[in-house]
Amino acid sequence: MKRILFTAIICAAAAGVFAQNTTTTTVTKSVTTDTKGDTIQVKTDTIKTKRKGFKFTLGKGEDTQSVSVNRRDTIKEHSKAPGFSWGLTFSRFDLGLATLVDNGSFNLSPQNNFLRYRSWKSSNVGFDVIQAGYRFNSSFRIYVSGGFDWTHFRLREDITIQQDGPDDALRYTNDPINYSKNRFTSSYFRIPLTFDWRSKVDDDGDRFHISGGPMIGILYNGRVKQISDENGKEKFNNDYHFTKLRYGLTARVGHGGFGMYAKYYFNDMFDTAQQQGLNNLSFGFMVGF
Questions:
Q1: CA-wise closest residue to 262 among 212, 208, 196
Q2: Residue 111: helix, strand or coil by DSSP?
Q3: Is the confidence at residue 42, as pLDDT, over 80?
């Protein structure tokens, strides 16, 4: 997981960095004087400084484009014809907070109180790696993408969620151990369908984005990770009754390559009867539209 996140952050940083190529202005003077000391000729040569932007392209189709921005030049925008596009991508890198919503309330009900979590240490991380879409014009496009999404809850209680058991409720044990970390994680393949409105390019070569749409997730793993003095670091993988297929909505807004996002899933987080009405809400910052 950490290796994937480090690779993702490096790719995001590389895609957003702008290089500049600058030449130094030099002045050469040639002075000739006569026997009286008067100046006869002065020559001056000047090399002008110019800045260039970094280019990055990946993908196929009409929407594939490279952008080079020189902040000293005038930005010109050309209208784009409709067309399909597809390809690999690294975009919509999400990093935010994860929250549980229990039957419309942010306070957990008594039957779910064992899932009490540390709000500022519970997180959501995700990004897209493939995308296909259709651009109607320069301002509006629609695309479907695929990627990965992790939700981590840092549990407050010294408990261990059980891997096996009946489908009526999540089972857990109270442990006589003080866990320095007790993390409960769900991992999903995410498939969002996004409607994206983009403004015209501004003087800096950036756009304002408003986008969103439905999204589904397919469970591929659940995990309990615990760290304690008694047992060291332990990891247990299981589905932990996480719902196999989740569905919800996502919304994004931002400028240039940065923005904010929110995700809410309509169906229950678990497929157990006791946890009915327990949903997942995530929100935070994102990089890469």
A1: 212
A2: helix
A3: no
